[in-house]
Structure formats: structure tokens, C-alpha cells
Amino acid sequence: xxxxxVLLLSQIAGHVILVILSLCMxxxxxxxxxxxxxxxxxxxxxxxxxxxxMFEVKWSSTGFCSFPLFTAMFLFLISTLQxxxxxxxxxxxxxxxxxxxxxxxxxxxxxxxxSAIMVTLGxxxxxDGMTERFPSCETAAGQNIIHGDQDHxxxxxxxxxMGTAQFGAWGSFAxxxxxxxxxxxxLIQNHQVRNIKVSMYLERQKLVNxxxxxxxxxxxxxxxxxxxxx
Length: 230
Prior knowledge:
Layout: H1 2-35, E1 45-48, E2 55-58, H2 63-87, H3 95-130, H4 137-140, H5 158-229
Antiparallel strand pairs: 1-2
Membrane topology: Multi-pass membrane protein
Subcellular location: Membrane
Protein name: Transmembrane protein 179
């Protein structure tokens, strides 16, 4: 019982942290897409023009930003529902409920690791283009680098936003691993308890049958002795 309470509290704490980390992904990624005029910075490439020193952009697909945003919203909703569910839980969860928790944990883990890799690699590709002109990617933030789109694109905060999104993505992956392990431990514990209960029931039935057999044997003994006397 103590172990079950500790695991339950750990799950609640993990989902609370996951809500915060999902916001660390959702908010900066959404701001980045808005500040770049609806374009996605991740995996965006280009080349520097010698005549005016501007960066001729080849925008990547918006899906590279849409998937991490979807993951952040998915984690936020699932964690919010799980916090509400766990805080109101008064009875031990069923085997089916625990199995669903494990499946959901696997999906959370898969989405978070894919998003973390996507954000990290995508930002590296963008920074590779920036460091062709600037000493570091951070230095390029806030510079007038994209010709023709200056009125629609704000590059002042992209480094902080992508750094925060990476922190949220990798943090979400780490917490999702912990939540998945806890869900699996609870499932294994529930399975072991069910097996123990079944074994105890079978053993009890075996003892009852043995006792009944002994009573039946004692009841027939006087009859046999009486027949022998006759």
C-alpha cells in the first residue's frame, strides 16, 4: 500500500512537471512561427548574397514546427487529465486502466523523443547557415538578415525561443521515461497481486476439499464397522 501511494504521488508530480515543460515547448515555438511570418525556422537553409549581404532563405516545411507543437499540446492535455484523474482516485486502479496508462506512456515517450530530435537537429541546420556570416548563432539574433521580409519577420528572440523549446522537449522526454517506468511498475505489481490472490484462492479451495474429504471418510467409518459386527 505504501509503495502504491509513493508511485501514485510520483505520477502526479511527474505530470505536473510535464505540464510545465510542454508549455516550454508550446509557447516559444508558437512565438517563433508568428515572428517569422508563419514560416518554420527548423531545418530552414539558405545562402548569403554577396551584393547586399542578406540571407536568401529557403524555407522548410511548416510541419517541422507543427509536429513539436502538436506534441506539446498532446502532453499538456494528457498530463492535465491524468492529474485530475489521479487526484480523485480512491480505489486501486484496474488492470485495464493500468495497461492503458502504459500504452499512453509509450505514445508520450515516442512523441517527445521525436520532437526533441526534430527541434535540436532543425535548429542546428539553421545555425549552420547563420555561422557562415556571424561568429555564433546567438549573435545573429536581432540582425537584419532576410531581404524583403523585414517588415514581417522578427529575428530578435529566435535563439532564446529555440533554446527554451529544446529544454522543454528534452525535459519532456526525460519525464515521460519516468512516467512510463512508473506505469509499467504499477502494472507489474497489479499482475503479481492478482496472481497471489488466485494462488491463495486455489490453495484455500484445495484445503477445503481435503477437509471435506476427511469429514466424508469419518462419516462412513461407523457404517463399515457396524456391518462387520453384524
